[in-house]
Design goal:
The protein is of the alpha/beta class. It is built from 8 helices and 7 strands, in the order βαββαβββαβααααα. The chain has 2 domains: 136 residues, NAD(P)-binding Rossmann-like Domain (Rossmann fold, 3-Layer(aba) Sandwich); 99 residues, Orthogonal Bundle (N-(1-d-carboxylethyl)-l-norvaline Dehydrogenase, domain 2). The longest helix has 31 residues.
Length: 241
Amino acid sequence: MRVVLIGNGRVATNLLPALQQAGHDVVSINSRTLEDLPEKADIYIIAVKDSALHDVICQAAKGRGEQFFVHTAGSLSLDIFEGCCRHYGVFYPMQTFSKEKQVDFSHVPLFIEASDSLALTTVRSLATSLSNSVYVLSSEERKYLHLSAVFACNFANHCYALSAEILEAHGLPFSVMQPLIDETAEKVRTMHPRDAQTGPAVRSDENVIAAQKALLAVRPDIQEIYDIMSKSIQKLAHDKL
């Protein structure tokens, strides 16, 4: 396919080589230089930050209303394209991206949606050329998918950052946590996360919980997170019984 990729952020940086490796003819365009946008392509992929998406869609689709556009956002609806073009869709790769590390797209779940059957055929063809896991999902359901990803990735990573902060304050490297993190991630490949839960909260070990909360007295913000997380773990454990 002839693909125009608009954006230069983390998603676009990873998507560009993946598209090229899959054999697509890709024109990469920075969202700030839309005057260089080709007039025609099989698909235009807009991979920019959510707050800029609507404006970029309107600019990119001007004079190209019959072309096919998709966005890569997890939490924004399909109808953001309405009024700008006739054929459009969503191409959401559910993965965490960075510019420093190239992601293997063959293992990335891709969630797609489109305005019509022809557009869906096009976006499905593109998606299956990159990934072994392609799902058609509505905008409404994708909101919950993205919300779940925030818990599984963004919040989990923030907990890593807090862990690193506590360790570094006491002269310990975060690397000591890596085997624990790896084992936890490995367990949930074969177990439900509720069943894989360990630690003082799931055991209702109130003495340990109280002692650890006391250690966090100098950081009431982290103490509050500890308390909320512990209570949430206990509730899930209780609900499972």
